[in-house]
């Protein structure tokens, strides 16, 4: 039975989620992590580069909305 199963590496996906999940009606951003609902939904299927770009944008989003 050797060779039937292959080993798949496990990749840990870092998330900015802090378990305060509530989308603001005005900004469209999560009150906890400042991501949009589309970004949250696509987080695990997005590329590492895309996730890095979203994470890089979060501080400016928080500053512009002023409630995070």
From TrEMBL:
PANTHER family per record: DUF1289 DOMAIN-CONTAINING PROTEIN
Name under which the protein is recorded: DUF1289 domain-containing protein
Originating species: Sphingomonas alpina
């Amino acid at each position: 039975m050797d060779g039937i199963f292959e080993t798949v590496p496990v990749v840990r996906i870092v998330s900015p989620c802090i378990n305060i999940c509530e989308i603001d009606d005005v900004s469209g951003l999560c009150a906890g992590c400042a991501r949009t609902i589309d970004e949250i939904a696509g987080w695990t299927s997005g590329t590492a580069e895309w996730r890095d770009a979203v994470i890089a944008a979060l501080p400016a989003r928080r500053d512009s909305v002023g409630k995070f």
